[in-house]
Amino acid sequence: MNNNRRRNFRSRPQKSNFRRRGGSVNNGSSNSLNSNGNMYFNRNGSMNNIHNVEKTMQKFQQLAKDAQSNGDPVLAQNYLQHADHYLRRFNELNDKRESTVEKPISEEKSSLKEEVAEKETQLA
Predict the structure, then answer these.
(1) Can you give the residue range of the structural domain that contains 100?
(2) Quick one: pLDDT at residue 27?
(3) Residue 73 domain flag
């Protein structure tokens, strides 16, 4: 058997839907929003659950304290920057939650005011 001999491999045709998600085919269109596979990726909801965000923020704050006590100010600053990111996300989720809670309350108040105004006009 000759080991120096090259084998001639036949190329297989590539599948057109290889690792393509959503069933859409990008035909070179200029709309890159549809072709971005990570656009709606949400990390199992970890960034949308306020409790997970708060827990992660506290974890990075503790890691920063530990790094500072071990004499590594660069690593401590890195952890503090991560904690700051999660703090901003925590505040965003809090604001969003408060706005969704306040919205129905304000709608109820406005509907009560309308009912009172209707009753006053009927009495007059």
Answers:
(1) 49-123
(2) 55
(3) yes
